TrEMBL record:
It comes from the Bacteria. The lineage of its organism: Bacteria, Bacillati, Actinomycetota, Actinomycetes, Pseudonocardiales. InterPro entries: Cro/C1-type_HTH, Lambda_DNA-bd_dom_sf, MLTR_LBD. This is Helix-turn-helix transcriptional regulator. Residues 34-81 form the HTH cro/C1-type domain. SUPFAM superfamilies: lambda repressor-like DNA-binding domains. Transmembrane segments: none annotated.
């Protein structure tokens, strides 16, 4: 671990980011160039003290999970992220591991969308990053451990997940999730991450087994979804999915489909965050 080089790199990258680039208001009395340490800590989900110790070269070796969080918070490019891992004494993520770190370009797009709910997803439906509006609409999807981090697994293995979606759309959403997973399985044949997920889904859900046997294939692109939010009620949202050239990551953007949804989304922004019930988290 190259503590001094790591400290210098993190400090310079923090100072190079404008608050507006990550959705933080840049007030007139601001004196700090770039982000404050507490802002980096908030974006990365770690303590301010740890960020300070990293920048002062006094920290223990950070884990790969912490490095991934710092890479997202500091909007590092793929090359910068690999450099960060090297300085911390870790091997950079391999191709499959890197797919679980949101790409810098998608994170910049996420920041620019502002109050429009949006999330960066892996091709298996794992939430890699969300903006505040997305968290308000569907909860923090990045918190799920194990197989629960995949939207398709939550849908079939945890019935409470469906409480966040209109009942009349349940069958359509189930078929869409399975058809999209079929497309991924075709692109990534013999990939243990994909085959293992399919096997575990077949073991826990008879519904999944039946739909998987139908061999429907459809890459998720555009759709309309009705969310049942515990605080503001029904929101009908248009969903647009933008995929990277290698189809390993996607940007999911949700826009109100009508005036009623637009008003409810505005109300949700005013109300802010609150603990979500156990059934929340059906988005995306």
């Amino acid at each position: 671990m190259q503590r001094d080089e790591l400290a210098d790199f993190l400090k310079r990258r923090r100072q190079a980011i404008r608050p507006g680039d990550v959705g933080i208001a840049d007030g007139p009395r601001r004196r700090t160039s770039g982000l404050r340490r507490e802002e980096v800590a908030m974006l990365a989900g770690m303590s301010v003290d740890y960020v300070v110790r990293l920048e002062q070269g006094r920290s223990s070796q950070p884990s790969t999970q912490l490095l991934g969080a710092l890479a997202r918070a500091l909007r590092l490019s793929e090359d910068e992220r690999d450099h960060l891992f090297h300085l911390a004494g870790h091997r950079p993520p391999a191709a499959d591991g890197a797919a679980r770190l949101a790409r810098a370009g998608l994170l910049r797009m996420l920041d620019l969308l502002g109050d429009t709910p949006a999330a960066v997803l892996s091709d298996l439906g794992e939430a890699l990053a969300q903006n505040r509006a997305s968290v308000l609409l569907g909860g923090d999807l990045t918190r799920h451990p194990g197989d629960a981090r995949y939207a398709v697994y939550r849908w079939f293995a945890d019935p409470a997940t469906r409480a966040g979606r209109a009942p009349e759309e349940h069958e359509h959403n189930a078929r869409q999730l399975v058809a999209d997973l079929r497309a991924v399985a075709g692109r990534r044949s013999r990939d243990p991450d994909v085959t293992g997920l399919v096997e575990r889904l077949q073991a826990v859900s008879a519904e999944f087994r039946a739909l998987w046997a139908e061999h429907e294939v459809a890459v998720r692109r555009a759709d309309r979804k009705t969310f049942l939010h515990p605080r503001v009620g029904r929101l009908c949202m248009n969903c647009e999915t933008l995929m990277t050239p290698d189809q390993r990551q996607q940007l999911l953007v949700l826009t109100p489909a009508d005036a009623d949804a637009r008003e409810r989304l505005e109300l949700l922004r005013v109300l802010g965050t609150e603990d979500f019930p156990a059934g929340a988290g059906a988005h995306p």
